[in-house]
Amino acid sequence: MSLVLHGYFRSGTTYRVRLALNWKGVPYDVVPVNLVEGAQSSPDYLTKNPQGLVPALEVDGQLLTQSPAILEWIEETWPKRPLLPSDPIERARVRAFAAAIGCDIHPIQNLRVMKKVRADYGQDQDGAWAWARHWMETGFAALERMAASTGGKNGFIFGDGPTMAEVYLLPQMVNARRFGVDLSAYPRLVAADEAARALPEFEAAAPENQPDAV
Amino acid sequence: MSLVLHGYFRSGTTYRVRLALNWKGVPYDVVPVNLVEGAQSSPDYLTKNPQGLVPALEVDGQLLTQSPAILEWIEETWPKRPLLPSDPIERARVRAFAAAIGCDIHPIQNLRVMKKVRADYGQDQDGAWAWARHWMETGFAALERMAASTGGKNGFIFGDGPTMAEVYLLPQMVNARRFGVDLSAYPRLVAADEAARALPEFEAAAPENQPDAV
């Protein structure tokens, strides 16, 4: 199977896909899509992803979009080194943790929304970053409460190794640090982030280690 | 198995869960959580969902949150009358369509975000609704392009019956009509919405048919 990941080093959703593929040991090629230069809106890229968002994963020439869908496809296609538990209720809990980031934090503070806040409501960069921090702080407080009863070990949120919880958490923590969120209120999240980033497969997926990093 | 759905008649995410349970023929009790009165932030409800959002699904006393996680759990637990296709690539496409709504439209235009736009940026109701319409129109244009190559029948987006695509679409169409989106540009979405709403199981899940509807 031939995989080509169209994405951007700093895109959190692209980072998620790298984390899952690396963890499963699945090889893939990378084609950078420079979000700052607007490459995601080029006619060529729109044929790959009609939403004009990254990532898009090309699977033997077929295009998959939306990281939550791509991640489920990866988990179904390479079930070894699972990122979801086998117990149905536990699976739902891991997915809920992931969705609390993937639906309720990340999309509200991503590039296109911050651009809209600046363009329509006269916000400067500080204002846009304050918007982003608000949604991260609200979401992280809930995640920290959720993590209090998950019974993870070795720092991880669920179980004794990484799950989709860390796949979604790490990219969000990058944004949190970038936008100046005070992380001291979220010790469980910080511990999980550190535990997961220490894994070589996860380290290799980090934004700063990508070929298009600037 | 005993199911209690904590939610609100007008909540799109609660509506998704009703659609899936009704389609599968799974009985459940309803406990209304009045979002307008702020019941989602009560100490009692926060023990059910630390995010302070609806829905929460109580399964034999265990609490599940986040509609994307709840919907996957429903599909895994009651595989008959599937809402996801069996082919892995097709599953990913249906999930991508769903996530394009669940991540990139709905959370950006929900109640708490519109409240923030009003409170922080001096927007009135018209301004908040314009914000909501912008994200729906951007998202619907992409969904309409995505739906052009899905090969659905009888009006449905994928296959010849409802999938997770319609489970996510119907609640978003309710919001679109409520906030004044001109739907004439999205004929495939309108057709799928009409086809799915004509199903008795889906009709019974509509907001106006709920016990807490006002």
Helix and strand arrangement:
Two copies of one chain form a homodimer.
Chain A (H helix, E strand, L loop, with lengths): L2 E5 L4 H13 L4 E4 L10 H6 L7 E4 L2 E4 L1 H11 L10 H15 L8 H11 L3 H23 L16 H15 L8 H11 L2 H4 L11
Parallel strand pairs in A: 1-2
Antiparallel strand pairs in A: 1-3, 3-4
Helix pairs in contact in A: 1-3, 1-7, 4-7, 5-6, 7-8
State the CATH architecture of the largest domain in chain A: Up-down Bundle
Terminal residue distance of chain A: 30 Å
The strand count of chain A comes to 4
CATH T-level fold name of the largest domain in chain A: Glutathione S-transferase Yfyf (Class Pi), Chain A, domain 2
Question: How many domains is the backbone of chain A divided into?
Answer: 2
Average of per-residue pLDDT values of chain A: 97
Largest sheet data of chain A: 4 strands, mixed
Q: List the uncertain runs of chain A.
A: none
Rg of chain A, Cα atoms, Å: 17 Å
**Main interface: chain pair and counts:** A-B, 46 and 46 residues
Helix/strand/pairing category of chain A:
alpha+beta
Order of helices and strands of chain A: EHEHEEHHHHHHH
Anisotropy-based shape of chain A: globular
Helix content class of chain A: 40-55%
Give the DSSP E fraction of chain A (strand runs of 2 or more residues): 5-15%
CATH level 1 name of the largest domain in chain A = Mainly Alpha
Oligomerization state of this entry? homodimer
Strand arrangement within the widest β-sheet of chain A reads: 2-1-3-4
